[in-house]
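Intended use. Records like the one below are meant for learning the mapping from a protein sequence to its folded structure. Do not use them to infer anything beyond what is encoded.
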Amino acid sequence: MDVLPGDFVDLPFTLNVFTIIVSLAAVYYWVKLFKRISISDRRDEGWMWIFASVLMVLLLNVSTMLLVSTSGRIPVDSYRVFVVDVKTLEFVNAFSRTVMALSMTIGAYMLYKSMRSRGDVKFMFSPVEHVMEDSSTSEQKFDLKSGCSYLVSADQEDGSVSGWDLFVDLVTHGTMGLVVSRHHPPELRDRYGLVKTPMVWLTQEKVDDSLHPSDLTELSHIIKEFIWKGGETAVLLDGIEYLVLHNSFEDVLKTIQGVDDVVVQNKSCLILTIDPSAVSEQEFHLLKRELNEYMA
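Structure written out for the chain above:
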């Protein structure tokens, strides 16, 4: 059975149109993903190499579609026409795929090397459990607004109210809570009398219920998922300055802004403690602009 030459043109054209649509969707969702994660240094370079390979897929299929749809004849000017033969098209395809393969390989290697050198492959695949702390018989001391994030100074020399005071008051009066702290959880439980409240330990050690301080992506995911699933909850992020030691202040601030948006939407409460002397005056001012500074 003879096949008309036009059939060869229609099928590749349709396939390339479909591939272009898929490639555009990949680029769109990759950009959305990139905006939601906090990456830096070699990780940043690795993700950019992978994104370059996604763009190459898009450009390759756009160029191939144009060549097929024009039967390989591309007008250069009024007198000249550039004709692309099969060998040239095969070379373009082979070269583009080689570039894509190299981009994907380089990107994956840089991501792997970054995680291996810093020991921060620490994704907590199991979600944090929502457990209610035993209720206190005393009256609630502090009146915090739902949907607000509070910045509390960690300096206790003046005897002022601490972030822990606010948090413990909430979780012992009917609010489910989550603690993310630099300090060892067993010590915190003994000090503040919290038995059931889940705690995540910010540490470089590979132990249960721990998170590497440089992994802002997973930190954001843990807190947001806890709020989304728990509704009106309370989260204590104890010691922002420790996060700044392992990340840029800009990345930490972006993470806090993202969490704050979720707090507002779910009428939850976020309490952040910080030692003002551990950050610059400008950085502390930026935090106060984003959060409500708690004044006793």
